[in-house]
Amino acid sequence: MKVVIIILVLIVIGFAVAVGVGVARGGQEPSASGAPPTAANGEIDEDALEDWKPPSVAEVMGKLARPFAPKLLKSPVQVSGQAGSGLQSGVAGRYDVDPSKKDMRIARLSLVAGTAALATFKCHGDEKEGQTCEQAVCLCASGKAFDEDDVDDCPDPWRRARTKGDKVICRDGDDASALVVYSGGGVIEVEPVAGAAATVSIR
User: How far, in Å, CA of 181 to CA of 133, rounded?
Assistant: First the structure.
């Protein structure tokens, strides 16, 4: 079964690379796929490239391996975060992930309450080679618009791909995402974005 999963993931990765190269050559605007910015003639935009950052390995793996990798939990749990008020600081919702014999699991996330949420993962212990032990994803409902300052904590590629004028506008499917969880376990935290509270389902 593991061999089948690995083969499927490699096929998807190859397909994604091909799509990324096609985008880079086609003169299209950069998208959430992380393709480098291009000019109208299809060449790489050298000026925009200075501010471009490729997506992290964990972000790419989270998207590609999501249908195939083992789920983090058999039954979903809901984690809520509260925003600060006045002198009171915000309180992040927290879920502790126990260690596992599995090298990698995928935490499937979905926004179930609130306008938007920031979900982060941090490993227990030191980061090992090939791991990304500090990950962050933002979740929001399709069509929701935010000021850029409201989503400052969201990953840069995510914000840039959704910026129109002075607003950041959420796309279809942005209410779901994934985090890569390694065998050593760690902590998933949930904080509201531009709202008083947010709840995320983790599975």
Answer: 8
Q: The pTM is what? A: 0.68
Q: By the 8 A CB rule, do 69 and 104 touch?
A: yes
Q: Residue 201's closest CA among 182, 175, 180? A: 175
Amino acid 131: pLDDT: 83
* Span 149-181, pLDDT tens digits: 899 899 999 999 999 999 999 999 999 999 999
* Rounded Cα gap, residues 1 and 66, in angstroms: 16
Backbone torsions φ then ψ of 3, nearest 5 degrees: -65, -40
137 CB neighbour count, 10 Å cutoff: 24
Q: Evaluate the CA torsion angle 175, 176, 177, 183 in order and state its sign.
A: positive
- Count of beta carbons in the 10 Å neighbourhood of residue 148: 13
Q: Per-domain residue ranges for the chain?
A: 1-52, 70-202
